[in-house]
Amino acid sequence: MKIRAGIEALAIAIPRRYVDLEDLARARGVDPAKWTVGLGAREMAVAEPGEDTVALAAEAARRALTAASLDPRELGMVVVGTETGVDHSKPVASFVHGLLDLPRTMRVFDTQHACYGGTAGLMAAVEWIASGAGAGKAALVVCSDIARYGCGTAGEPTQGAGAVAMIVREDPSLVELDVGISGAASTHVHDFWRPLGQREARVDGHYSVQCYLDAVSTAYRGWRQRALVRELVRGDIPSEGLARICYHVPFCKMARKAHLQVRRTDLEDAHTPWDASSEELRAAASFETQVAPSLPLCSRIGNIYTGSLYLGLAGLLDAQAGALANQRIGLFSYGSGCTSEFFSGVVSPRAAGRIAAAHIRDQLGVRERISVEEYERIMGLTAPLGQPPPLGGFRFAGVEDHRRQYARG
Ligand code: HMG
After folding, report:
1. Is the pLDDT of residue 390 over 70?
2. Among 10, 71, 348, 385, which residue's CB has the most CB atoms within a 10 Å radius?
3. In angstroms, what CA-CA distances link 94 with 63, 106, 139, 145?
4. Catalytic: which of 83, 156, 176, 341?
């Protein structure tokens, strides 16, 4: 018998401070429209050292378990996708497992490949459940990162921080994934990387955009081939058969570029000439319906690396889960270096109630807007500030005898 698997519940944790990108642009002598219109970014989450990858992951995981009303004894796997871990050996998942006091009898590990790391974890969990190997257990998958390029760099307005946690199980209440129907694309490139011992990422910015676009074409083609065989989509523009598409969002304009690329791929493969003026207008219109609803949270938090795709999904479901009941959505995950995957799933009729339990938007309302000077001071800090984040979140409290300590505020 086929086991249906996917996302049961989803919750986020974000830093309690943010900087407005118009303030930052003025301080850098940049026309604010370059970032707000040119990149589509409005605000950027700023994590102080107490809000590290572990603290954000543990808090998102705690909220996801609550939103799912799941007894932790039902879990058989905890996996964290991250590219900004806190130790060369001990995984973030191990800290999360301890901080949430989860049962001993489970697999606990991290997955890494730049921003794709969370998707690697999600696929491992979904395929583990769908194969029957999970024997009825659920999995906790967390994507958690702090994105840093450094003050005054071209990447500066595309920083951010946050975590998204997902409960994955059989007969899921949010999104049932189309297991086995996906397309992957990977190439060995140096578009973005972070050498050992460095806090800030290195990036070849414009090249990274091109690598992403090349990847989305190939991955989408792979997904489409399988989806057409299974008749999940039809017609000359199969991407139109998806009610919504969530893309990995390093900055919101990238999702627009990706969507244009997917449309162009459909038309090229249907041997329909790309008439720039009319097709770009049609692609822009379909962007507003198919993609824009997934971007509001991303534009106010920034790039959270592994979690960015799922932050888009969280925002989409929070806003439109009811209207999307029983409809198929597409998801594209990209990790620099690079690897990527296009996959799909169907939104559950129970999704609206389940996502409401995660109180996604409430977290934006309690944030504190800080000045550019305060943001620069926090960027320079290496030790925690000391005061607890709001809503009783976890925080990194310092190092004792080479062991990282965490507290709950
Ligand atoms: P830049 O070179 O300073 O910006 O940085 P630009 O000159 O390319 O301008 C950006 C856009 O603003 C352009 O629009 C301009 O026309 C427009 P486009 O042509 O692209 O549509 N513009 C304006 N619009 C309105 N009013 C104005 C104005 N001026 C210009 N006055 C860059 C851009 C992306 C390079 C930089 O932000 C960067 O390096 N970011 C980091 C790298 C990145 O995000 N790459 C994305 C793909 S790779 C990826 O997604 C993986 C990643 O998440 C990491 C991982 O996998 O772990 C990054």
Report:
1. no
2. 10
3. 18, 11, 14, 16
4. 83
